[in-house]
Amino acid sequence: MKIAIDIDDTLSNTADPLFSFYSLKLGKKFKREDHIQYELHKTLNCTREESRKILNEFHQNGQLGEVLPLDYSIEAVNELKKKHELFIITSRPLQFKQTTFDWIKKHLPIKESNIIFAEDIYKEGNRKSKANICKELGINIMIEDAAHHAIDCAKTGIKVILFDNPWNEKLKHKDLTRVKSWKEAMKSIEKTGKGSTKRSSKT
Ligand SMILES: [Mg+2]
Question: Distance from the CA of 15 to the center of ligand 1, in angstroms?
């Protein structure tokens, strides 16, 4: 199968260090539980520009490059790589590209040509949506945490594995499987693989 994977809060724990950084900068305590929709500035009760400026500082300080992989994510990707074609699809801003390449290179066996930068909420850089990229690549499964990307992909018939988070808790769709860990995600991928007509025959 072809499997696409998001980075932030799918492969890495980005939310916890990022919310600590926002708390420091804005002088008010924010936790991941407070973030119940996708647009950060609404959770932070600041302008979109302020939120973006602090995100850029988080990157410039080197903290984005130091985010930690989620439990078992590295082992899981290494395992998946043996049987499937893997892509990373992120909607990080384009100025984070090198940091993103370096992070992937440090942790995962995925080449730069399989790392794709999709459209972000600011619609900068004339990029394609994750769902359109998935369609073009013929992706079977998208692993994601952001509700708007997940629902777009599910509506185009792509199976979505959704990492459970406060910002996606209301989302439901027949092609969407909610998981709390990479161990659960791996079970779901295996199940989808067994049901897939595209799997290679064992002759
Ligand atoms: Mg994400």
Answer: 9
Tell me the one-letter amino acid at 103. Answer: W
Structural domain includes residue 202: no
List the structure tokens of 7: 């980075």
* pLDDT tens column, 103-145: 999 999 999 999 999 997 777 778 899 999 999 999 999 999 9
CA dihedral 37, 66, 5, 90 (to 10 degrees): 60
Q: Phi/psi at 87 (nearest 5 deg)?
A: -130, 150
Encode 125-136: b = buried (16+ Cβ within 10 Å), e = exposed. eebebbbebbee
Q: What are 143's strand-pairing partners?
A: 5, 161
Is 145 within 8 Å of 6 (Cβ atoms)?
A: yes
30 CA distance to ligand 1 centroid (A)?
A: 18
Range of the domain at 25: 15-66
Interatomic CA distance for residues 8 and 55, integer angstroms: 13
CB 146 within 8 A of CB 164: no
- The Å distance, Cα 144 to ligand 1 centre, comes to 6
Q: Are residues 50 and 95 in the same domain?
A: no
Is the pTM higher than 0.90? The answer reads: yes
